[in-house]
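Consider the tokenized backbone below.
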């Protein structure tokens, strides 16, 4: 179930976002947003490459808080708005995953980068 939601958010939702916000260049926008999935290439730097209990936000370089800040800046500048939307939506999708992981594993939250930033809120 988690996988179905995750991959439909990663593939289909960008199509929907493209249709709603970039309709005059819908297919191009969708393609660009799908290309932003390549940001997951930073997982290859991690050991292990895939860890079902790891929240990627704040952990991987292209998912770091610095990177998210850059995506927000990109969003302000119109020529970069489509890829920025793709990056930010990717972060949103991965965030859903983190919440899913944390709901089943309290220590995963305590060990995540999100806890370092937001832990005091809970
Ligand atoms: Zn990711």
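A designed sequence for it:
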């Amino acid at each position: 179930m988690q996988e179905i939601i995750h991959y439909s958010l990663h593939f289909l939702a960008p199509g929907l976002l493209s249709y709603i916000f970039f309709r005059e260049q819908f297919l191009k926008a969708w393609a660009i947003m799908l290309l932003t999935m390549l940001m997951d290439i930073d997982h290859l730097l991690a050991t292990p490459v895939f860890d079902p209990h790891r929240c990627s936000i704040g952990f991987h370089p292209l998912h770091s808080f610095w990177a998210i800040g850059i995506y927000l800046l990109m969003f302000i500048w119109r020529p970069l708005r489509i890829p920025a939307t793709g990056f930010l939506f990717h972060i949103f999708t991965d965030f859903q995953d983190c919440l899913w992981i944390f709901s089943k594993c309290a220590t995963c939250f305590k060990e995540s980068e999100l806890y370092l930033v937001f832990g005091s809120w809970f």
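Residues 40, 56, 63, 90, 94 surround zinc ion (CB under 6 Å).
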